[in-house]
Amino acid sequence: MTDSDGYTPLPRPTATRPLLGMTVLAVEDSRYACDAMRLLCLRSGARIRRADCLQSARRHLMVYRPTVVIVDLGLPDGSGAELISELASALPRVAVILGTSGDSFAEDVALAAGADGFLPKPIASVTTFQSEIISNLPPERQPRGLRMVVDEPIRPDPLAYRDDMAHAADVLGDGGDERMLDYVTQFLRGVAYSAGDHVLEAAAQGLAEARADGRPTKADIVRVAGLVQDRLADRVAI
């Protein structure tokens, strides 16, 4: 079924809430990034659902068909490009498929997989969010009339950032396989970049470069893990 199934007529878009009647599925493992998406949807009139991995997203899509799917490229159980490719070839097709990431190369990957557009992180602009969705809707579904632009910056809940740190600490504490270490390094780099946490971002970037160069990484891992614990202990504000 679609998220619009039911007996109640869908609300019509307004100048201040141009996405009324639409549902956004955010496929996003970061609670901080997802809270930003929640605020963007709230200001735009859209409903939001969240899946934190590919498996969860596929389960959701077996039951519901949202208007918009926004897929993070780096997920714990694989690349978001896989899901974008599946969605792009599925019938009936989701109206709008967007990729998102903080990595500079990710837009090309998302578009090559079949995405209609791309939202670079951090996603802080309501106007950019609305425009990217509306411009990729079929013409007959695009809201008519002028939109009222109120582009106050989005400020996600700092507690969501701590949730991301707790998730990273769990992965780092498991002493997992190499793939999970690559995942948590990419995860921390992206979340820290979105939150403006430049110290943690630089440490995660250093770990990524050491792994790519084949250099010893023990000291880098210890540094990253210590910074994560500092944020969990509230010794650092973002």
From TrEMBL:
Determine the domain of life of the protein's source: Bacteria
Cited CDD domains: REC (cd00156)
The family database entries (SMART domains) matched by this protein are listed as: REC
PTM 4-aspartylphosphate: list the residues.
Answer: 72
Question: Where does the signal peptide begin and end?
Answer: none
Q: Keywords in alphabetical order, please.
A: Phosphoprotein
**Residues in Response regulatory domain copies:** 23-136
Q: Name one GO biological process term.
A: phosphorelay signal transduction system
InterPro entries associated with the record: Bact_response_regulator, CheY-like_superfamily, Sig_transdc_resp-reg_receiver
Q: Coiled-coil intervals in this record?
A: none
Which SUPFAM superfamilies does its entry note?
CheY-like
Q: Which PANTHER family does the record cross-reference, listed alphabetically?
A: RESPONSE REGULATORY DOMAIN-CONTAINING PROTEIN (PTHR44591:SF3), STRESS RESPONSE REGULATOR PROTEIN 1 (PTHR44591)
Query: What is the name attached to this protein's record?
Result: Response regulator receiver domain-containing protein
Look up and give the organism this protein is from: Salipiger thiooxidans
Q: What is the lineage of its organism?
A: Bacteria, Pseudomonadati, Pseudomonadota, Alphaproteobacteria, Rhodobacterales
